[in-house]
Q: What sequence folds into this?
């Protein structure tokens, strides 16, 4: 039986994004979006996915010429093994390689950003679930992520930053996940917290630290269609909507386009269209 690597990769992505900063392309902002693309790759034998970015002018007209914004490579089992992100000048801004074991568990990722030290993320499992993650630069631990579940469904990720890569990054954070009746993740809330030395739980190995919420940092909400495909995500800083993305699919269910609206206005800023290669 092959391990459910889609969920593991997506939980890991949440931790990666906290490590690398606020700027990411729209398709990487939230794990359910990657989950949709990972599901496509496994079911449809997708080999690669290229993202082409197009801008809108002040009149809302989409440019005819675009530039490559991302290129993803998958193996024959549907695992995402390589991701390249490009700047608007079509220069590589990030390069990530992912490794898996024979059951599909994500073991580690190596991220290269030009003119920055290489980051490596190593993952650890318990009872078949992602339990713990470390992000390293050389031999130093940048931050750690600990994952907690409710009935085998991710409920919280506690992040402890040991080295601040950016200004104003709190030492301790938590991501709280909420779901609908179908099991779709509909919201992620990111809080600054203060961890306590006290713990809750009956089993020493499963105890969770208590914490005090300092403030809400950001949130992301998700909307799905009747086929549980994500069709919209909205990003909030505290309670202010700062970005909205709409997703489109073809008749085969492939994600073909995403349209980004800055500050959640009705005027789109850019669109990314996807082109696929197959085995």
A:
């Amino acid at each position: 039986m092959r391990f459910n690597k889609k969920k593991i990769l997506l939980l890991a992505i949440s931790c990666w994004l906290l490590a690398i900063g606020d700027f990411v392309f729209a398709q990487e902002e939230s794990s359910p979006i990657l989950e949709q693309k990972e599901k496509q790759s496994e079911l449809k034998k997708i080999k690669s996915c290229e993202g082409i970015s197009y801008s809108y002018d002040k009149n809302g007209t989409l440019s005819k010429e675009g530039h490559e914004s991302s290129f993803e490579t998958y193996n024959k089992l549907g695992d995402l093994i390589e991701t390249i992100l490009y700047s608007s000048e079509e220069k590589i801004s990030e390069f990530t390689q992912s490794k898996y074991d024979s059951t599909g568990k994500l073991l580690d990722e190596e991220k290269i950003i030009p003119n920055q030290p290489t980051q490596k993320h190593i993952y650890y499992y318990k009872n078949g679930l992602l339990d713990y993650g470390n992000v390293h630069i050389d031999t130093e631990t940048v931050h750690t992520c600990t994952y907690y579940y409710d009935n085998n469904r991710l409920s919280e990720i506690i992040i402890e930053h040991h080295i601040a890569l950016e200004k104003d990054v709190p030492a301790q954070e938590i991501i709280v996940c909420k779901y609908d009746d179908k099991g779709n993740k509909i919201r992620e809330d990111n809080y600054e917290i203060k961890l306590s030395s006290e713990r809750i739980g009956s089993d020493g190995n499963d105890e969770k630290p208590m914490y005090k919420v300092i403030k809400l940092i950001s949130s992301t909400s998700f909307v799905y269609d009747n086929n549980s495909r994500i069709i919209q995500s909205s990003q909030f800083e505290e309670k202010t909507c700062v970005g909205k993305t709409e997703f489109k699919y073809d008749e085969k269910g492939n994600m073909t386009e995403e349209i980004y609206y800055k500050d959640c206005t009705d005027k789109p800023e850019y669109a990314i269209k996807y082109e696929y290669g197959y085995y």
